[in-house]
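Supplementary Methods. Inverse-folding protocol.

Structures were first reduced to a discrete structure-token string of length 400. This string, shown here, constituted the complete conditioning input.
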């Protein structure tokens, strides 16, 4: 059984700096071990440019995974396993390890991106991965929007199943994208409109209410003719922002822009921080957060929602002085009796930082992948799993 996990973790001095992604892979792996599958794990890590590069080796993941699995298997009353790292991901070295490995050992293969064929989804490389296993499990949701050998190509050659992480992502994100309980409210923020145009566009069609914060709000504010001072504005997108506001208008949707803004004179070394109405920004103001009136209005508005999707922080949340707006939205979502889904790399971080992550229905692990999913795009890595699942009614995770 070959499992495509998401071990694309940050490394610092050759050690795993944040083990969240490894932690999240544990339920699927532990279940397969309990089911006595012969488990091999593969993943990409970072963007190695030209073949094998020790700086991008997956070796540091092995001891961390082993420790986490120890704990999980002990909780389940199952015997521990050791995780053996193999410094290749295809070919003779892997196969000979596989043939000689003891039953209480699982294999962690080297970075799939050490082969350039991986990102080209080259059939020969996909076949080389498929040659290692009888079945394939994809649990790397964050990579499913890319048709690479280890996410999509291999699934042409072996029965391919979704791991628990992917199943959960699909369950929550399809609820948002296809059948949200209404009223369906959407909160959008973050740095830029670029890269999120399709999400905004889709959400204008789908959502009952849209709240916009973050720097994105200033491009919309500019489109309405407001002074935005020195706030982050995408001038080349102002026209598009205008078109979106018009589209929303035509469809009878309200896009709520911030009523007030926290402004400062310098993000790094602020000498003044104050809240101002959106229409009162001065030429030297930098907008860094939604203001208290906006926080209140959003929280009040969200109270009626039955489904909420949130992408993009409301301000420069990395600085505690400008994190209040983002925290307020996190608290508002946490208090709801509704399905609440958060997507996006920084948004997920922000929710964790706010301390209420466990009160959110689902925090997506995929940045780009979750956005593409809610846009209604088909993710190649998921599409191929669904086809296989349909053609194989005997599908279950423990299959080997
Ligand atoms: P996500 O990763 O959740 O999709 P983005 O990458 O779009 O979110 O945006 C996150 C970034 O947006 C954060 O680093 C945050 O500092 C920045 N940001 C939010 N509001 C502002 C603002 N008013 N001015 C500058 N940057 C902002
Ligand atoms: Mg981001």
């Amino acid at each position: 059984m070959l499992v495509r996990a998401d071990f694309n973790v940050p490394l610092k001095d050759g050690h795993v700096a944040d083990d969240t992604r490894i932690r999240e892979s544990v339920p699927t792996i532990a279940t397969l071990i309990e089911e006595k599958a012969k488990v091999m794990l593969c993943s990409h890590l970072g963007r190695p440019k030209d073949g094998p590069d020790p700086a991008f080796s997956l070796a540091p993941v092995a001891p961390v995974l082993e420790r986490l699995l120890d704990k999980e298997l002990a909780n389940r009353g199952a015997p521990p396993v050791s995780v053996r790292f193999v410094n290749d991901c295809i070919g003779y070295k892997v196969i000979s390890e596989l043939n000689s490995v003891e039953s209480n050992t699982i294999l962690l293969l080297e970075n799939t991106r050490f082969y350039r064929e991986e990102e080209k989804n080259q059939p020969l490389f996909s076949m080389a991965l498929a040659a290692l296993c009888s079945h394939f499990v994809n649990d790397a949701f964050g990579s499913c929007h890319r048709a690479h050998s280890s996410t999509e190509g291999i699934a042409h050659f072996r029965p391919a199943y979704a791991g628990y992480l992917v199943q959960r992502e699909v369950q929550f994100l399809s609820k948002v994208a296809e059948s949200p309980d209404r009223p369906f409210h959407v909160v959008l923020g973050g740095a830029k409109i670029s890269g999120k145009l399709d999400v905004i566009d889709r959400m204008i069609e789908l959502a009952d209410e849209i709240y916009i914060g973050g720097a994105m709000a200033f491009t919309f504010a500019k489109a309405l003719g407001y002074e935005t001072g020195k706030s982050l504005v995408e001038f080349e997108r102002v026209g598009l922002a205008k078109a979106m506001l018009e589209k929303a208008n035509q469809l009878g949707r309200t896009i709520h822009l911030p009523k007030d803004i926290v402004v400062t004179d310098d993000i790094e070394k602020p000498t003044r921080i104050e809240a101002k109405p959106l229409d009162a920004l001065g030429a030297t103001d930098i907008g860094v957060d939604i203001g208290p009136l906006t926080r209140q209005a959003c929280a009040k508005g969200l109270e009626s929602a039955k489904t909420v999707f949130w992408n993009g922080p409301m301000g420069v949340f990395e600085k505690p002085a400008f994190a209040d707006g983002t925290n307020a939205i996190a608290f508002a979502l946490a208090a709801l009796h509704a399905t609440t889904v958060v997507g996006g790399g920084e948004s997920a971080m922000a929710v964790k930082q706010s301390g209420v992550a466990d009160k959110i229905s689902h925090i997506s692990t995929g940045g780009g992948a979750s956005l593409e999913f809610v846009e209604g795009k088909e993710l190649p890595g998921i599409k191929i799993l669904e086809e296989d699942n349909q053609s194989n009614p005997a599908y279950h995770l423990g299959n080997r």
